[in-house]
Amino acid sequence: MATLAACGENLVVCCGRNLIAIHNNLDREPFVFDCSKAEQKPKESDNKSEDGGSEEKGCDRILAFAFSTSGNLLALTDDNKHLVLFRTNPSWECISTRWVVRKCTSLEFTRAEDLLLVADKSGDVYSFSVSEPEKPGQLKLGHLSMLLGVAVSPDDRYVITADRDEKIRVSLLSLPHNIQSFCLGHCEFVSCLSIPLAYPQWLLSGSGDGTVKLWEYESGRRLQSLDLKEPSVTQASDSDGDKRAAVSRIALSPDCSHVAVLCERVPSVQLFRLEKALEGQLTPCERLTLSHCVWDVTFDPSGRLWVLQESQETPIILYTYTQDCWESCPEDPGLRRILDVLCSHWNSFQDSAGVESCFQHLYKVNFDNMASYLQRKQERIQKLQQKKGKKRAGQLPQSNGASKKKRVSLY
Fold first, then answer.
1. Could you give the strand order of the β-sheet that contains 10-15, starting from the edge strand earlier in sequence?
2. Could you tell me the CA-to-CA distances from 411 to 255, 319, 402, 407 in Å, in that order?
3. In sequence order, which ranges of 59-177 are alpha helices (DSSP H)?
4. Extended strands (E) in 240-359
5. Residue 204, C-beta contacts closer than 8 angstroms, at least 6 positions apart
6. Average pLDDT value for residue range 137-150
7. Name one GO cellular component term (predicted).
């Protein structure tokens, strides 16, 4: 799925195997990185997994990317297990290419920007040094199920991980085997995490159960839960599992007063106000309805909202908050330049176009074996009754007076 992020003066779009970085203000050529041209792993270990078996080669599709807090660094990982580190200022430059053990799902820089944390599909988190860009990763912690998100507290004290089995774990970053708390309450996989910098004690989480929850993560206490299921989704038949709306993105404005939440396959963006009340308050304020499926959303440093959608004519839309509502800005000169770049690279979006769900394989599969058990039990009872009936019918001719007299004589 195509993804979007804004940091500093750069707006970055990842689609397929390409990363496209566009300057927000200056009319300069975009920086484009093609993962298929990244440095290749040495042949002696190219197709070997950690246990020595052969492993299928990936397709160079970008799986995750992340900016550092300052925006001076960006890291991405792809389907071929590259981990590429870039410097963005004063110009884009590839610092290093390393390799991860397993395909990754989420990346996060520490606040100090000295470490890059990488969560993978096997449930492990590895840390990679930023100051030593050629140094291999070190295993930090592990879950028993696939990891889908990783976050670091603003003071770099905690690492927060979310997995397929509905758990959010809060661990000490320096000693990850020490678990501070669990944030439990989701009914499906936890798909995204976000910590508002203005409220560093809080955590926002989204899930495949269609809810967004607000936590005080150090204690594991849930402060609020909001159900975001769309009416058009809930009206679908219960047997159609593809209609469940997983929360795919939680984006925060720079001042953390606005929160944009996106559910996959839904042509709208739900906006909230985040306020510091006694228990924390996430208040719905507006819904932006679009004519196309939304891929991703992000806020830029100025607090403007960018929406990436599945439309070749208008792949990106810009909104500005004015007079207590969000308004589209189609005439913004920066938007026109970005539209021209994305339209010229539309072929890169083909892998994301028409994709119904990135999370469908993560949902639990419920097996109702009780009905089949009761049916088999009833069939056994009927067969037993039929067998007994046939046996009685076979003994009936022998049930005469002599036999009765013989049975009485036995006593």
1. 3-7, 10-15, 18-23, 31-34
2. 98, 99, 15, 7
3. none
4. 247-252, 258-263, 268-275, 281-289, 294-299, 305-309, 316-322, 325-328
5. 193, 194, 195, 196, 212, 213, 214, 215, 250, 252, 259, 282
6. 95
7. nucleus
Domains of the chain: 104-353 (2.130.10.10)
Strands of 104-109's sheet, edge to edge?
104-109, 115-120, 124-129, 138-142
Q: What is the dihedral of CA 136, 138, 142, 148, to 10 degrees?
A: -40
How is residue 67 written in tokens? 């900016």
DSSP state of 324: T
Residue 107 C-alpha from the chain's centroid: 12
pLDDT at residue 235, rounded to an integer? 36
End-to-end C-alpha distance for the chain, whole angstroms: 85
Q: What does the alpha-carbon distance between residue 247 and residue 144 come to, in Å, rounded to a whole number?
A: 23
DSSP 8-state code for residue 105:
E
| CA-derived radius of gyration, the chain | 28
Q: Which residue has the tokens 């970053």?
A: 173
Q: Is the peptide bond before 397 cis (omega within 30 degrees of 0)?
A: no
The SS3 call for residue 250 is strand
CA neighbours within 13 Å on the CB side: how many for 271?
Answer: 23
pLDDT tens digits, 15-62? 989 999 999 888 889 999 999 888 887 765 444 544 444 455 567 899
Give me the phi and psi of 41, to 5 degrees please: -70, 145
Structure tokens at 341: 């770049």
Tokens of residue 134, six digits: 């050629």
Q: What is the pLDDT of residues 61-84, one digit of tens each?
A: 999 999 999 999 999 999 999 999
Residue type, 45: S
CA distance 233 to 266: 9
pLDDT tier for residue 367 given thresholds of 50, 70 and 90:
low
Q: Residue 286: pLDDT band by 50, 70, 90 thresholds?
A: very high
User: What is the 8-class DSSP label of residue 79?
Assistant: T
Task: Output the DSSP codes for 286-302.
Answer: EEEE-SS-EEEEEE-TT
Total-model pTM: 0.83
Q: In the predicted model, is pLDDT for residue 383 greater than 60?
A: yes
pLDDT per residue as tens digits for the range 117-139: 999 999 999 999 999 998 999 99
Coil, strand, or helix at residue 130?
coil
Q: With a cut of 60, say whether residue 397 has pLDDT above it.
A: no
Q: Give pLDDT, residue 404.
A: 47
